[in-house]
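YM 10:42: SsrA-binding protein sequence, as discussed on the call
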Amino acid sequence: MVKERGRKLIAQNRKARHDWSVLDTYEAGISLTGTEVKSLRQGRASLVDAFATIDDGEVWLRNVHIPEYKEGTWTNHEPRRSRKLLLHRGEISRLLGKTKESGLSLVPLSMYFADGKAKIELALARGKRKHDKRRDMAERDAQREMARAMGRARKGMR
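YM 10:58: structure's back
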């Protein structure tokens, strides 16, 4: 049996970096059932509106949609069930302290297979306000315009 190598992206939360200021990221394993893994291998999942919570010293991923496996039988899973995340005890206690004291949230950025195991990239993030989003968009536009000007100058154009 040949073991998979590398990283295969399943789903990505594209709006996460737009709506949240990411302070730190963590990689966590996910506790899944067999039909969930088969559905993920087909590249079917949605991280829209997903978040993580810490309950009784365990981290839970909530509101992630993994559709039912088409070839599954009565053993199929519930599409939006809560799934346990696998983190080290020290990481959990650090996350618990930061989310309690400073009002930060746990937001999933992407879900992928790393060496054949389902993983999720979890961000410790603070919500952005409207003016923060506008400032970020203005900075991005300014950077893009500077890069264009530098490219034109390099080519000898004005």
